[in-house]
Amino acid sequence: MEGRIDLVLFDLDDVLYHYSRRRRAERLSEITGIAPEVVRAAVWDSGLEAAGDRGALGREAYLQAFGERIGRPVSLAEWVDARRAAVSPNGPMLALAARLRAATGIAVLTNNPELLTDHVDVICPELRPLFGERIFASASFGAAKPDPECFGRCLAGLAVAPSAALFVDDLAENVAGARAAGLHAHHFTSVEAFRRDLVARGLET
């Protein structure tokens, strides 16, 4: 063991939930009548989503910009609908988080605008029973992973020292950012590999 772990901090997309950007763009296309490739270029290739993740745009400004970039206004309900269509729960990981909760703290830190956490009960309804209020969007901290400030501000709010936190993410750059911030970290590739890491740390049997 590398030291006491008081908190396991989970990424959301492609860790606790399977996420498909393709499906999200397709759903937005179904809603707006605009081709999926145009949607992808307008939202992701333009840097809009990255700006939303780091909190550079407030909720209303982000949603307005979302519609402006696509070329057709997108309502909050439509945004939530498309975001919901893009995800499905990773049952084994959620079950593992539920087991961990009995022995240590758990929380979620996801690169997303605050609209995600505002409406997480619709988009990811399995989260609240497990994590309660400990579901955080990077935009709330004015920085996005892998920026060490994002981790530091999140942990400060939870009153957990970085050295007592284990972060799990599917992106290597975010894992590196967590380690730079002083956290323990696991690069997620499979539920079984993560479980083995937890066993080695004494957090799972």
Automatic annotation (TrEMBL):
Pfam families: Hydrolase. NCBIfam families: HAD-SF-IA-v3. This is HAD family phosphatase. It comes from Methylobacterium ajmalii.
